[in-house]
What does this fold into?
Amino acid sequence: MNTYKAAVIGLGSMGLGIATSAHRAGLTSVGCDINPASCQALRDAGAALADTPAAAAQSVDALAVVVVNAEQTESVLFGPDGAAGALPEGSVVLGCATVPSEFSKDVAARLAERGVLVLDAPISGGSVKAAEGALTVMASGPADSFAKAKPFLDAVAETVFELGPEPGQASTMKMVNQLLAGVHIATAMEAVALGVKAGLDAETMFDVITKAAGNSWMFENRVPHVIDGDYTPRSAVGIFVKDLGIVLGEGERLGMDLPISKTAHERYLAARDMGLIGEDDAAIIKVYAEQAGITLPGDDT
Amino acid sequence: MNTYKAAVIGLGSMGLGIATSAHRAGLTSVGCDINPASCQALRDAGAALADTPAAAAQSVDALAVVVVNAEQTESVLFGPDGAAGALPEGSVVLGCATVPSEFSKDVAARLAERGVLVLDAPISGGSVKAAEGALTVMASGPADSFAKAKPFLDAVAETVFELGPEPGQASTMKMVNQLLAGVHIATAMEAVALGVKAGLDAETMFDVITKAAGNSWMFENRVPHVIDGDYTPRSAVGIFVKDLGIVLGEGERLGMDLPISKTAHERYLAARDMGLIGEDDAAIIKVYAEQAGITLPGDDT
It folds into this structure.
């Protein structure tokens, strides 16, 4: 067992994979989550659990906050039993949630007052990559933060983009990625719905488009869910309700019109209003199907 | 010289490449265009020229209509000196323009009255692929049409998707592709503009996004034009003014809301209104730059 101690706050599918990868790489890995099932999964993988973020933060080298949004990040760091008060001087906090860049900067400033380093470190790649220790991390922060986080990043990431010395730069890049990803998913559903309405089947569209100039990473990843009629959430509608919300908030802060993002966000809101917030985001196609009277694969079963 | 005769009406960058590829493959290749420079380019490649579509159609096996839209297709087939009256019985017309599927069906019905076969055959791949004889063709029509067109398709295409026995099916697929492609270009520009406004540079965004879930074929293809500050039209703003217009018309015909396509189309119209209709479609970013006060690569030169 390595003496480098890594804590992961938030054991959803991403956090669990990260904590497991850190453990497998030989780091002293401890996790913390309010969900007992998630805790049990990490225990089964052989890693340690802590009851509170503060307990997890005891004598850590690196603490990754792998929660859903800024509110949860705030709470696990600075709320009751939060990690901030227990973090050793010189340890590094990796902020992995998708949050506004201003929030990242603010967290970094508050932790700096305690002598704690911060790496703005939003992640992508999905739960399979997280479990394999093969995440993509978009990271920004001072050299000290990168140096302190290195053993942890080596254990959990395949690709680390070093985006600059300032917290917030990585969150801005993540936001750009989420704008594209969120719009591409909704656009894939608009296109497939139109094709179905006009008489094509989804599988043929998949075969052609994935070899044509209309392709996107998200088209290729999400359209199979429609073909299978399987809306088990790999990533739920609610994620892009939130993330395109962050995009639009940032646009507003910067005085910038983002009409395509806004229109796509309205599709996610429409899906939410249809009760689909917990379904896979490919369920956006159901918004189109309802409006246009389309039968989708799986509808007849 | 093969006795199979192929004619190409419309010698823009795509048609010229197709006619040249057919000639290189040993077919008897004849081209026709109202632009003398395009005609000269084909003559330089060693192929024959015809003065009118009717003259080009004399004793052909296959005649490809490689013009911009339905109006031009109508004109070169059925207008004065149009090909329709001169096409031999049993020859095949390949409709390669992006047109509404109803138009494809209508053309097929009118040519069938003259004993002429039709293949609905929109193309993609760009001018480089056209010149290499390596196009992607989305094709639909009866087996007779495919059989008659085969020597021509073998000469000019790398991939032929056989999308069904009815004219119109291929045009519908092309429309789905153009919806995705047109939205992805405009979305790439919205995302890059937001990133630049928030302090990132376009090159860094390109490096990260092309390896992340936000990637699209169009992001990867068009963002380099922004990085280079080079808006020489590889595909001009006007193409998607037209093609997203077809998408929206088809949505209307089918009673289907396509809000993302509509919003993206408005970006192309805004670029047109800024006088950018002849620039590369990456110039959509200038619409954002003007609204948000962004300096783009090349602005300072």
